Amino acid sequence: MDIRLEGRTAVITGGSKGLGLATATRLAASGADVAILARRPEVLEEARQLISETARGEVAAVACDVSSADDIRRGYDTVMERLGKIDIIVNNAGTSRTLPFEEVWDEIWQEDFNLKLFAAIRLTRLVWPQMKERRWGRVINVLNIGAKAPRAGSAPTAVSRAAGMALTKVLAGEGAAHNILVNALLIGVIVSEQWERRAASAGLPLEDFVRKLGTDVPLGRVGEPVEFANIACFLASDAASYITGTAINVDGGRSPVV
């Protein structure tokens, strides 16, 4: 399927690495103007250059800490100045921090919710009015399979991700009358910077570490970022015009919940 996004503008949080970078690259190659948001300016610039190699539209890199309400506002204003509008949001910023419940103190809960839930709330709230006015919008919330099937010891991530799934459903219900489609993508194990760090901590080559992770996946392997990006690009397009309010597992069959 040839996905075409000319005339659309997308914002991807956590867009300088991993899933965010892959998604931004795919959207830009499909014709969308793209803005990537992340904290580190030097990493953002490297990502911008990489995306620009195959982009068919404008690519903007905006330094922004999405866990800060003030920074989100500044980031939004900068994107509007550079690109003029926002049609597509990919709320991707986040980590997979997990601890035993008794070790999750208030500040850890707050940090997690600020980064994963409130960042999505705040950015979407800023963009929502223009999506309603144009009667077209796409919001994609990147979560993980713990949102549907939380395990013991998976706080705070599983809890904030479950809240993100509820947010997806609420927004889908409110956006439907305005042709704003809101969906969530729930990842399992996909190659990313966090797994590179874990492989290094374990003293294993990334290839060996990833191969071992893949043994717990029914498909027998870990996913690639481009496989995630392809689904995100589809949901961002007119081809997905009758899909909203869903939480789609992108996990090779790993989740026990459909």
Secondary-structure blueprint:
Blueprint lengths: L8 E5 L4 H12 L3 E6 L2 H12 L6 E5 L5 H15 L4 E4 L6 E2 L6 H29 L2 E8 L10 E2 H19 L4 E8 L5 H9 L4 H9 L10 H11 L11 E4 L8
Parallel strand pairs: 1-2, 1-4, 2-3, 4-6, 6-8, 8-9
Antiparallel strand pairs: 5-7
Q: Can you describe this structure?
A:
The chain contains eight helices and nine strands. It is globular and about 45 Å long. By secondary structure, the protein is of the alpha/beta class. Helix content is about 45%, strand content about 15%. α1 runs parallel beside α2, α3 packs parallel to α4 and α4 packs parallel to α5. The strands form two sheets. It has a seven-stranded parallel β-sheet, with helices on both faces.
Keywords, separated by commas or semicolons:
alpha/beta; 45% helix; single chain; 258 residues; seven-stranded parallel sheet; two-stranded antiparallel sheet
Largest sheet: 7 strands, parallel
* Gap between N and C termini: 25 Å
Strand portion, in percent?
15-25%
In terms of per-residue confidence, which ranges show pLDDT below 50 for 5 or more consecutive residues?
none
Helix content: 40-55%
Tally of helical segments: 8
Q: Could you say which structural class the secondary elements and strand pairing correspond to?
A: alpha/beta
- From N to C, what is the helix and strand string? EHEHEHEEHEEHEHHHE
Average per-residue pLDDT, rounded, comes to 96
Strand order of the main beta sheet, please?
3-2-1-4-6-8-9
How many E-type strands? 9
